[in-house]
From TrEMBL:
Listed name of the protein: Ribosomal RNA-processing protein 12-like conserved domain-containing protein
Transmembrane segments annotated in the record for this chain: none
Organism field: Entomortierella chlamydospora
Residue spans of biased composition, Basic residues class: 1315-1327
GO cellular component terms attached to this protein's record: nucleus
Biased composition (Acidic residues): 1098-1110, 1183-1197
Annotated segments matching region Disordered: 1044-1077, 1094-1138, 1177-1197, 1232-1263, 1299-1327
Residues annotated as signal peptide: none
Residue ranges of domain RRP12 HEAT in the record: 389-685
Pfam families: HEAT_RRP12_N, RRP12_HEAT
Coiled-coil stretches noted in the UniProt entry, renumbered to this chain: none
Length: 1327
């Protein structure tokens, strides 16, 4: 069939099967725009042609068909719309076509594209963009041989011409295409062969346009030439990363000439091109283009000669750029110039670093080593307060980058050496280094004329501290008094910025020099010195990689002196609290001093170690800090030892080598055992919820202990454990410390990964005997936990394997003694045993199976998860094969025999649980079968699967709800996971079995049945399911069908109210497992959980029975597809009366259904109670006959009764006679209701039963009727006033005297009563 004919006849009924066209199908199939409709129709025609030809639908097939169609219509001017649609589809498919196809069809494809580009009139902008995309990917796919032909270069020239087009969108797309082409050279080529054409074209255009701007006769020609230069500069900026080094100078000469044209736009664009040429970062707009069948090749590394050549070019360019410095007040050009300077000198520093790293530092041109001091002198004055803020920001950013990249390590070393040499010399004889000159320049920035830039200068100073690192001492110590003085200046409010710089100074110069320069002065308040207690928090967060000896010799004595002062403050409690706070802050610094100390071998003495131990014992509040510090000593040194960096780099960064770090760990090994004893003692005295820091530090020192110390320590713990287990423990009250046996069990668990084989065996013998101890559930749980920890180590698995038979027997014998607390850890241990089983020991599986099956019904969710995982693990073990000896299985009847382990045999074992004597056991067996069937359904024989499904039919008809609930879950898993053919055989049993539970609301049975029916309808279709549904229950299936159709309509119309997939996608999705990433899945069985619980109905569940009866004529209500997090509730209000929430009767106003919905339902019910004639009129029967036909009365009796009961209850509470009972049973009548809720009538009297007559209620005054001015003119059926015959107009003037005379009669001037005035807060006469 011809494609053009098919395009006019074929309706849009099917979806494309090619992923590149997915967006077209979803957005354009139902589009009302002619061009989009043409795109979709053309695509459908192409797919239909491919199907008729029997070709596989692939990108290559699309490419061949579309190119053939385009070739037929390439020069026909009457099919522009068809050609545009084909080009749009080709632009989508070209990136997915294999490279080999594009290369083999290169000549023919290029001929078609160039023919269309040469048409007159030219293609439209959308078609042109599609052509550019096709040509781009066609050229990218070609190899170096193709680029040697002139046709390829001419195609690139065509793109260059389009990149200068006056139309913005085609021009931008062409520029992007040129960039993508030249930045993806053929294999093993650095410079793209087409870059020569790009350079020649752009340079020629720039020269001619520049001359055109200078010699333009009129403004129109000048503007045209300027626009051409701007377009060309934009192209150069995009291809700057691929610009050849040898063409650097010609381009820079042109760019340097552009600022002389006195055009701000040209100057700005020129600086932007400079920045792109000199910048090293890749543009985020330049994506990697890799075609199908092509691997991304590594670009060859530049050679030394190329690096030297590029460095020379950059040096020449930057020397010229420095001469083009704009005015500092120019907020447009100065930031751009600074960006160029920053990018150029950073790139120059990078290239110099490459040469020095390669040992070619001698090849660095002398002109490239531009003194950074010179740059600082040129750039720093821009921070003058008179300059714009944008200039300040760009200057700060430029100087920070120069400091970070252009200050070399050699400069820092020379500065340190010069400072040492200059000590003791006179100032005129001192030789200033580069760093000292820069420091002097920054110090000058704290002058008053730079005040508005102080924050930026502080940022520059922070960058200088970080770059110098440890060399900041002594180079930058002179800045500390300046910052301190500024910190105490009241006029300077940006204290946070100063603190950031001080933190950088602390971490680089070190706390010794810092505190010697700026002392704390907190222990001598009588002296008139500045107290700097505010430095303590900064020190805590900044001290690192410094001298530990300073803390031991200076700060610990400071803390002792503060402690003495605190003890002496017996009368002044406030000062004592202050001193205690300062003591805690001083000791909190220990974690920073222990973070990779540089003098650990000398500073960490026996005295300091003992002091830490004493503090751990005596000051509980400081235990976390000390433990964290001792942990850092081990962790940081281990990180240095394991580092991949060289010793030279480590010494420059951390002043430490790997050998020194290893020596530090050896030193800590000497104190490991004493510290462990201290930790163990503190561990037993600490409540379990506060032991986190102790666990971490104990594991760390166990890891560095020597084997002898470790085994001695463990044996001591084991001896104490045996003693504690044999000693009778008194009962522990809630909140008290755990008994010694519990603490020692925890310690043993911590030490398990570090214990050798013999000690591990001794520990196993001790804890295995605790499995039967059901008197202490916590101790039993810890015993299982220790054995689990053993199974996670290689040594422990060897010990368990040698005692495997005894362990299995112990587990089987202690089944009855297992407590609920220890259930999860026991199941985990069983799983470890299963993994250790030999093929001849599989008798353990049927022996323990019943316990695992029952555990799937545990209340604890984690226990259930472990039980499910264990079921699967046992199934995999049985699937692997082996022998089951029935003689060794406990309680096994019959003659001894051996059975081969198979997955079918395993299912037979689990199926035996269906004969359980309790519903709980039967339900657990069904649940276990559901999980196993989902996991192993592909490994089972179809006959066994069919037999299980037939058996479940019996349990679905059970009268026990627990069993039925599990059976419905099994059916749902069956529906989701099994093949369609297997389920179809039992379709009648499945549908007929569950349909009887569709009327049961308890336990969500109705919802579960509906979900399963929806799944069945999705897989088998409505017609196959409805034949098995009884006539009385078909309304549920009809409702499902209608809601599915409604959801599809909403989805087709773009509505997101209901998430319902098409039939084709649903059929595919039923057999798919969860595609969520691992971090979003549950700990086990996420696919099973999705199948059982997650694959619920995609339709709304809150439909009413009325809707199930079929109300096609009504518009479907919009319902949210979000799940309700809780029950909704409404509060009924009566008019404008405020609701008193303190009233006891407010509960009666809370309702679970929306009041407006109830009112609407009542109105609907009343309207449906009348007959209608043939012409639609209501027929009202006024007779009071009670013999009306029930079929004519369509009122929901159950709803009416519930509403009437609710109304009666509310009436009893809100009526005049309503009352509530208070304390002692006293009756309190509803006064509020009588005046507020029911106060529309004026009757305020109530009649007491047995009383003499009406009694006036207290507190109720008789109000006089108030005359409202103009009330007689008020309209009855409209808002506003009306004119009446024979009377004055409503807006006529009335004498005030007559109003005053009528004041006693209650006439109001404002139409408001006194009570209303009081409510509005207006003062009365006595106010």
């Amino acid at each position: 069939m011809p494609i053009t004919k098919l395009c006019n006849q074929q309706p849009l009924t099917k979806l494309s099967v090619c992923k590149p066209f997915y967006s077209i199908n979803r957005t354009q199939l139902s589009s009302k725009l002619p061009n989009q409709q043409m795109h979709a129709t053309t695509l459908l025609a192409v797919e239909e042609t491919l199907r008729e030809q029997g070709a596989e639908i692939t990108p290559t097939a699309y490419f061949a068909t579309l190119m053939s169609l385009l070739d037929q219509q390439k020069d026909d001017p009457e099919v522009e719309e068809m050609r545009a649609a084909i080009l749009n589809l080709l632009a989508i498919v070209f990136p997915n076509v294999p490279v080999s196809v594009l290369r083999s069809q290169y000549t023919a494809t290029l001929s078609v594209i160039t023919t269309i580009l040469a048409l007159q009139p030219p293609p439209t902008a959308p078609s042109l963009r599609s052509l550019i995309t096709c040509l781009e990917h066609l050229l990218i796919a070609q190899d170096s041989a193709a680029w040697a032909h002139t046709t390829t270069l001419k195609a690139l020239q065509t793109l260059l011409i389009l990149s200068l087009d006056s139309r913005p969108k085609p021009r931008k797309r062409a520029q992007e295409a040129v960039r993508n082409i030249v930045t993806h050279p053929p294999l093993m080529m650095i410079i793209h062969p087409g870059m020569k054409v790009v350079v020649q074209t752009t340079l020629q255009v720039l020269k001619e346009s520049g001359n055109g701007v200078v010699g333009a006769a009129g403004s129109k020609d000048k503007d045209s030439a300027t626009q051409m230069i701007l377009h060309t500069l934009q192209l150069v900026r995009m291809v700057a990363k691929a610009w050849p080094v040898e063409q650097f100078l010609p381009l820079c000469d042109i760019l340097l000439h552009l600022p002389k044209l006195n055009n701000a736009y040209l100057t700005s664009s020129a600086f932007q091109v400079f920045e792109s040429l000199l910048s090293t970062s890749e543009s985020p707009e330049a994506p990697k283009v890799v075609h199908q069948g092509e691997t991304e090749a590594q670009t060859p590394v530049e050679s030394i000669d190329q690096v030297v050549s590029r460095l020379e070019k950059i040096t020449q360019v930057m020397s010229a750029v420095l001469e083009l410095k704009p005015n500092a007040n120019d907020a447009t050009l100065m930031p751009l110039w600074l960006d160029v300077v920053r990018a150029g000198f950073v790139e120059s520093a990078r290239l110099q670093g490459l040469l020095r790293a390669a040992g070619q530092g001698a090849q660095v041109p002398q002109e490239a080593v531009v003194p950074i001091v010179q740059l600082f002198k040129v750039i720093f004055p821009n921070l003058d307060s008179s300059n714009p803020v944008s200039v300040h920001n760009s200057t700060v950013d430029c100087l920070k980058q120069l400091i970070s990249h252009c200050i070399t390590d050699d400069m820092i070393d020379i500065a340190v050496q010069d400072m040492k040499k200059n000590r003791g010399l006179q100032s005129d004889k001192k030789k200033r280094s580069v760093i000292e000159t820069i420091s002097a320049t920054i110090k000058g920035g704290f002058d008053i004329r730079f005040q508005s830039s102080w924050l930026g200068i502080l940022d520059i100073l922070k960058g200088l501290f970080e770059r110098l690192n440890h060399a900041a001492n002594p180079l930058l110590v002179s800045f500390l008094p300046i910052i301190d003085e500024l910190r105490f200046t009241p006029a300077f409010t940006q204290k946070a910025h100063l603190d950031v710089v001080l933190s950088a100074a602390i971490s680089t110069v070190g706390p010794r020099i810092f505190l010697d320069t700026l002392p704390l002065n907190i222990d001598n308040p009588e002296e008139r010195k500045r107290g700097r207690a505010w430095l303590l928090p900064l020190l805590k967060s900044s001290v690192t990689n410094t001298e530990l000896e300073y803390f031991a010799s200076t700060l610990i004595p400071l803390a002792d002196r503060l402690n003495q002062k605190a003890q002496g403050c017996t009368e002044n409690g406030m000062m004592k609290k202050v001193y205690e706070t300062l003591i805690g802050q001083v000791w909190s610094l220990i974690s920073g001093f222990c973070d990779l100390p540089v003098d650990m071998e000398m500073a960490f003495t026996k005295e300091l170690a003992e002091r830490f131990s004493n503090v751990l014992y005596s000051v509980p509040d400081l235990r976390p800090v000390i433990c964290q510090a001792l942990t850092s000593l081990v962790v940081r040194n281990q990180a240095i030892v394991a580092s991949s960096e060289s010793d030279a780099v480590l010494e420059r960064k951390y002043l430490m080598s790997k050998e020194e770090a290893a020596n530090n760990i050896t030193l800590l090994q000497q104190y490991a055992r004493p510290y462990l004893m201290v930790f163990f003692n503190i561990f037993q005295a600490t409540l379990p919820q506060f032991r986190g820091y102790l666990l971490e530090v104990m594991r760390m020192y166990l890891s560095i202990s020597t084997p002898k110390d470790l085994q001695d320590t463990f044996q001591a713990v084991l001896v104490q454990l045996n003693t504690a287990l044999t000693t009778v423990q008194p009962p522990v009250q809630q909140g008290d410390a755990p008994p010694a046996s519990h603490n020692l069990m925890d310690l043993a668990d911590i030490m398990v990964p570090y214990v050798d084989g013999p000690n591990m065996a001794n520990l196993y013998q001790v804890v295995a005997s605790l499995f039967a101890n059901d008197a202490d559930a916590a101790l039993q749980k810890k015993a299982y936990k220790i054995v689990n920890s053993m199974a996670e180590t290689e040594t422990g698995r060897v010990v368990l394997k040698s005692n495997l038979e005894e362990l299995m027997r112990n587990i089987l014998d202690t089944t009855a003694a297992a407590t609920a607390t220890a259930k999860r850890t026991r199941l985990s241990l069983i799983g470890q045993v299963i993994s250790l089983l030999e093929p001849t020991d599989l008798y353990f599986v049927p022996s323990i199976l019943s316990e695992v099956v029952v555990a799937t019904k545990e209340v604890n969710e984690k226990t259930r998860d472990v039980a499910y995982a264990l079921l699967v693990a046992m199934g995999n073990k049985m699937k692997a094969g082996g022998v089951i000896s029935t003689e060794r299985v406990g309680d096994m009847e019959g003659a001894p025999s051996e059975t081969q382990a198979t997955i079918g045999e395993y299912f037979t074992m689990v199926t035996a649980g269906l004969a359980g004597t309790t519903p709980h056991m039967v339900s657990a067996a069904i649940t276990s079968l559901s999980r196993l069937l989902f996991e192993f359904h592909k490994d089972l024989e179809p006959a066994m699967v069919s037999e299980m499904i037939g058996t479940m039919h019996l349990f679905v008809n059970s009268s026990n709800r627990e069993i039925v609930k599990s059976a419905l879950g099994f059916i749902k898993v069956t529906t989701v996971s099994l093949e369609v053919g297997i389920v179809r055989e039992h379709l009648q049993q499945i549908v007929s079995g569950m349909i009887r539970w569709s009327h049961e609301h308890k336990g969500h049975f109705k919802v579960k049945v509906r979900h399963i029916l929806e799944r069945l309808v999705r897989r088998f279709g409505y017609d196959d399911i409805v034949v098995y549904v009884p006539e009385a229950d078909k309304k549920l299936l009809v409702n499902i069908k209608k809601r599915r159709e409604r959801a599809k309509r909403n989805k087709k119309n773009g509505s997101s109210g209901m998430d319902m997939e098409g039939d084709e996608e649903e059929a595919e999705g039923d057999n798919k497992k969860s595609t969520k990433p691992l971090y979003m899945q549950t700990t086990f069985g996420s696919a099973y959980e999705d199948a059982l619980y997650g694959s619920e109905s995609d339709l709304s569940d809150d439909d009413d029975d009325e809707e199930e009866g079929g109300n096609e004529g009504k518009a479907p209500a919009k319902k949210s597809n979000k799940k309700k997090q809780g029950a909704d509730a409404w509060i009924k209000e009566d008019g404008d009366t405020p609701l008193d929430f303190l009233d006891r009767t407010v509960v009666s106003r809370v309702t679970a259904s929306h009041p407006s919905t109830q009112a609407a339902r009542k109105i609907k019910d009343l309207s449906s109670a009348f007959k209608t004639s043939s012409d639609g009129k209501l027929v009202i029967d006024e007779s009071n006959s009670d013999n009306e036909d029930a079929e004519e009365e369509e009122v929901d009796q159950e709803t009416m009764e519930l509403d009437q009961a609710e109304n009666n209850y509310l009436e009893s509470l809100k009526s005049v006679d309503g009352f509530t009972r208070g304390q002692g049973g006293r009756i309190k009548f509803n006064k509020t209701n009588k005046r507020g809720v029911l106060g529309k009538d004026d009757d305020t009297e109530m009649e007491m039963a047995g009383g003499p007559g009406p009694i006036r209620s207290k507190g109720v005054k008789e109000q006089r009727p108030t005359k409202i001015l103009g009330q007689e003119f008020k309209a009855k059926k409209a808002g506003g006033d009306v004119k009446k015959k024979g009377r004055v107009d409503p807006y006529a003037y009335v004498p005030l005297t007559s109003l005053r005379k009528g004041a006693k009669e209650g006439l109001s001037l404002t139409n408001k009563s006194k009570a209303d005035k009081r409510k509005q807060g207006k003062p009365g006469r006595r106010s």
